[in-house]
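My main concern about presentation is that the manuscript never shows what a single data entry looks like. Each protein is reduced to its one-letter sequence and a matching series of backbone shape codes. For the editor and my fellow referees, an illustration may be useful. For illustration, here is how one protein appears when written out as sequence plus structure tokens:
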Amino acid sequence: MKPRFLILILAFCLLLCACKKEETTMETTTAPNAPVQALPTETLPPETETQPETAVPEPAPEDFVRVLDYIPDMYQELKYAADRNFTGQVIYDFSDAYLRYGTVKKLAAVCNDLAELGLSLKIWDGFRPVSAQFKLWEVCPDPTFVANPEKGFSSHSRGNTVDVTLVDRDGNELEMPSEFDDFSAKANRDFSDCTETAAAHAQLLEVLMEKHGFYGYFDEWWHFYDNDQYPVEETFSPS
């Protein structure tokens, strides 16, 4: 055999052995059928959805609302929620004033005007249940000062009427022609039998209340009713 041919055979054998060795090395470093690992991806926080704020609907004019919820700077001392009234009895069992929303908006306008003078209002009576009217009539059956429930309920039972007085920024009552529920001539709107200061305060109250849509009752300087009318309410019960 020629030397050149022997050299070719030897070279072929060496090449075949090298291929076998490389194949064996690959088998030992790579497991057959190994699952492919996916590259890790950046984990993003879930999108936060901003929920739109639900607007609280404005009450209808005829709805009953708690007065201080809408006029927080106003003062209140419901005379008939305690025995500090002309009857000496508790007439109703709630201590927060309630009125029709339409009436409250007008009352708020009065308070805004008074705030410019360093003053505010104190409410002595607002909505009055019809049951309370019967109690008042039992004690004082005088139609000049108490509405006869057998002939028609007080406008307080409509939720559009208030008994109010003037106070300073600290809630101190200003001098007025008389005390609340003074069933005498001093309580009327003649203002001839009181001091000039008291008359001026009562007239200021009257002017501002009338400016914003209230009418006053002649025999009671503290009594005002909304010129927007509402029916007598016989089922609403303040909580």
Notes: Helices lie at 3-29, 67-70, 101-115, 130-139, 196-211.
